[in-house]
Design a protein that fits this description.
- The chain is globular.
- The strands form three sheets. Strands 3-4-6-5-7-8-11-12 form an eight-stranded mixed sheet, with helices on both faces. A two-stranded antiparallel ribbon has the order 1-2. Strands 9-10 form a two-stranded antiparallel sheet.
- It has one domain: Alpha/Beta hydrolase fold, catalytic domain (Rossmann fold).
- Helix 1 packs across helix 2, helix 4 crosses helix 10 and helix 5 packs across helix 6.
- It has 334 residues and is an alpha/beta fold.
- The chain starts with a helix and ends with a helix.
- The longest helix is centred in the last third of the chain and has 17 residues.
- Helices cover 37% and strands 20% of the residues.
């Protein structure tokens, strides 16, 4: 993935162009390497325990060794007991006055992922943004189906608000964010925080999944297995999370299906990827926020696939786009 783009194109052959978008050469190379090494697709063909190990391994392969000012291993309150957490303090904030702080919620289809699978991405986000990042674990499906994760994440955010002083966190610059399923859980956390009148300054929503009811055009285009996410894998993870089919339509199950939103929602940045099955629902949620008077910026990274935010240790374009997202966080909480 570190080869010059011209060399990558010579090795790969014809560029992939769909929906007037050209897939980044380094991403095409990554997908080819995944195919050659027979890396399993997300949620396909493995038990939950096996898939969790693979997600951590894959995350570490593309994360590299990212610097960070300081780390603290913590526990925070969940809805049913303590949750593991990790605080990333950027180098620029060591010894500083109370600092802006983002509670980060990892992705993984509500069933996979942990602090280690997203360690590199959180280090990169904290260092690039100058924002302290509190990454949290939460209970996973299928052992803990909906609404366990929703309840855990909101409980953790309440803990952050109450314990801001102990983390050197500025209570006026608290935010929530995450990728994919973590984007969903950031949405539900922000909705509940607004309803409860809790302070929140920003939402960082990275290719969030927000609609389990409707099928979108981007799903038709990109969930066939060529671009990391597959319909088979997403359906399996969804079934683990929603053993009760009716729960998909719950306002906290599919918040993208809501027509009205609570007053006081924090401003949001929504990142989507051009070759991502979740692209259209993330962009639709941005329009829903705007229709409800919420300040929102949505940006599509057209050459990217789902998961690019974690690819910070190899290649160039994915890492640059992850840095751009960090810049949005920096600007929002500066």
């Amino acid at each position: 993935m570190g080869l010059p783009e011209r060399a990558q194109r010579l090795l790969l052959g014809k560029p992939v162009v769909i929906d007037a978008q050209t897939l980044a050469a380094e991403t095409q190379m990554l997908l080819k390497l995944q195919e050659v090494t027979k890396q399993p697709a997300l949620g396909v063909g493995l038990s939950a325990a096996e898939a969790r190990r693979v997600v951590v391994q894959q995350g570490q392969m593309v994360a590299g060794k990212q610097p960070i000012g300081a780390l603290r291993e913590l526990t925070v309150d969940g809805a049913a007991g303590p949750l593991a957490a990790r605080l990333y303090i950027p180098s620029s904030r060591l010894g500083a006055d109370p600092v802006p702080t983002l509670m980060f919620i990892h992705g993984g289809g509500m069933a996979l992922g942990d602090l280690d699978s997203h360690d590199g991405a959180c280090r990169h986000l904290a260092e690039r943004s100058g924002v302290q990042v509190l990454s949290i674990d939460y209970r996973l499906a299928p052992e803990h189906p909906f609404p366990a994760a929703v309840e855990d994440c909101f409980a953790a955010y309440q803990w952050l608000v109450k314990n801001a002083d102990s983390l050197n966190a500025d209570p006026e610059r608290l935010a929530v964010g995450g990728d994919s399923a973590g984007g969903l859980l950031s949405v539900t956390t922000a909705l509940q925080a607004a309803e409860a009148g809790l302070p929140m300054a920003f939402q960082l929503l990275i290719y969030p999944v927000v609609d389990f009811v409707n099928r979108t055009r981007s799903q038709e285009l990109f969930d066939g297995g060529a671009f990391y996410l597959t319909k088979e894998g997403m359906d399996r993870l969804t079934d683990w999370y929603f053993p009760d089919e009716a729960a998909k339509a719950d306002p906290l199950g599919s918040p993208g299906c809501r027509t009205d939103l609570p007053h006081g929602l924090a401003p949001a940045f929504i990142a989507t990827a051009g070759f991502d099955p979740l692209r259209d629902e993330g962009e639709a949620y941005g329009r829903l926020l705007a229709a409800n008077g919420v300040q929102v910026e949505a940006k599509r990274y057209p050459a990217m696939i789902h998961g690019f935010f974690n690819i910070v240790g190899v290649g160039r374009e994915c890492r640059a786009n992850a840095a751009d997202i960090a810049g949005k966080l920096k600007s929002a909480l500066a």
